[in-house]
Amino acid sequence: MARAIDLDVVKAEIVRLTRPTPSTLFGKGTAATLAELIAEEKIGLVVVDAALSPVQQRNLERRWNAKVIDRTGLILEIFGARARTYEGRLQVELAALSYQRSRLVRSWTHLERQRGGFGFLGGPGESQLEIDRRLIGERIAKLRRELDDVKRTRALHREARRRVPYPVVALVGYTNAGKSTLFNRLTRAAVGAEDMLFATLDPTMRRLDLPSGRKAILSDTVGFISDLPTHLVAAFRATLEEVTEADLVVHVRDAHHPDSEAQRTDVLAVLADLGLGALSDPESAEDGLIEVLNKIDLLDEDTRAHLENRTQRNEEVVLLSAVTGDGCDRLLQTVQRRLDSGIAAVRLDVPLSDGKTLAWVYEHGEVVARRDDDRAAHLSVRLSEADLGRLRHRQRLH
User: Fold this and answer.
1) What is this structure's pTM?
2) Residues ≥6 apart with Cβ < 8 Å to 189
3) Cα distance between residue 67 and residue 60, in whole Å
4) What share of the chain is helix, strand, coil (3-state, %, to 5)?
5) Residues 310 and 377 in one domain
6) d(CA 58, CA 331)
7) H/E element holding 101?
8) 113: closest CA among 129, 131, 125?
9) What is the pLDDT of residues 179-201, one digit of tens each?
10) Residue 31 belongs to domain spanning
11) Quick check: is 201 in a domain?
12) Average pLDDT value over all residues in the chain
């Protein structure tokens, strides 16, 4: 993660803790040893892959004479470097301020409490700490209001899509699993896709053409990561709601990563936190998700053959390479089959003079057979229940 924002990693140490120390997390001996190493290497920033309390962070900075951040702080730094859109910047700032508010310890010991004030005007009775807390609280409240507006706008967009309507397919997965590369491959888009953590923070949607000619909307979402703090998930809830509203979820995994199974567990845990725990139930294919094992082009022949043997009987697991395109056709066929599972074949008689209805049927359904006579087109069409209801409504209006 540190390299993801171009930090030069001078040294990496694994420290075993028998019992966390409340004041510094590490024991005295370990803290002293690390202090010598930091001074010797002239290290200016230390990243601790754990959650540090504000007191622990402050004490370590004093002891090591270097800036110290924890795992959450590093993730926020990456988020800040990646956010591009207005919504993305709002979400990152809200997450950062929620984190920063808990870091406001009494660092301004040189500021004495002055004579009493009213307490709500920020007058002379406030210490610097209280002023900062109040300002951060006000900014957080403003950001939440603005994100509520974003949430309402997204709800309106979803409602508009339901009226179109195209089914929504959401890509989810661990960060750097290759979601954006796959998104670009399937939709022929040019969304930023790089070999880095959290390259995508802002949700993107594009039209997806299925093999039958039916259309869907494909959504690319923010990548997940292990031990993602609750307030970070909360800040990105407006974005992640696109996943909860999707008709189908495709979980993209990095098959080449040594911790692929652990990453899968982390993603399913975040989905469960969003109220989508049923997706991970292997007993229910209808409610489950499609699992994509990406980056098979990086696997050696034996590993790839083993994966193919293990997954060949499971239609809900697709092996592919988003870079080469190998396996993408099978994924599209699997997506279509899952979306079509709620579709019924019906026979329709549409007057040839009603060109608009004929065009609508071809756009929203899959015409299996057609026979024309002098007056009408006799069609055999596969339509979803929702589209069938809309068609009947159109015919009643006519």
Assistant:
1) 0.67
2) 183, 204, 206
3) 9
4) 45, 20, 35
5) no
6) 50
7) helix 86-101
8) 125
9) 989 999 999 866 555 544 554 55
10) 2-77
11) yes
12) 79
